[in-house]
User: What shape does this take?
Amino acid sequence: MLIKTKGILLHKCRFSDTSMIINVLTHDAGKQSFLVKGVYSKKSKNRISSLELLNLLEITAWKSSKSDLLTVRELDVWYHYQSISEDFNKKTIALFLAEFIHRTIQSPDADPQLYYFVENSLLFFDKMDKKYSDFHLRFLSHFTKYLGIIPQNDYSSQKPYFNILTASFYPIYGEDNYFFNDQSSFQLHKYLSTPLQDYLDYTFSLKERSVFLDDILRFYIYHLSHFHGLKSIRVLKSILH
Assistant: This one.
């Protein structure tokens, strides 16, 4: 069976001397694994430069009835990033987001809304020329919606503390492991209140961003049993936090 779909490259690993396996968030089939043959060969049509993480791809692949692994026949980048590929800080954020999306999404089922959220977010991020230092934090806040764990944005001066267990705001600060502090709670409220593709009218400090990153990842770890954290967080924090 021949499959044609748009996709976003999330993860890659060498399979043999000449081949690679890539994990892709596809528009038509959810998260899928593809075998790319001969990618390390100079004669390969599928150039290694096309296989940068988060590249926006058009893929034609063959699926055998004997295997769940799809074999790529044609692969093209349909949009070439302008700033993500050149800006070191943006590239660091992109690598972090690739690992995050790869580790949080498991389903092979098609979810066009989720796919277009990620695609449109990346296109917007590539065009941002200012105030992008907390883009990943805003992305993580809004991405909750597509995994069915969206926080209830009922923040107020009477309920200023976010409770991880109930995914809602509380009037008092409870056990530390299950609450955001007042600043992180306010950040979550601001991020959820502002569409991702709007510029945020507020700037948070390096320390505030670092604490919030730890907090929002704790939220994901609690609500997603398969998610256990990220390797790229060290690199991200060393550069941006």
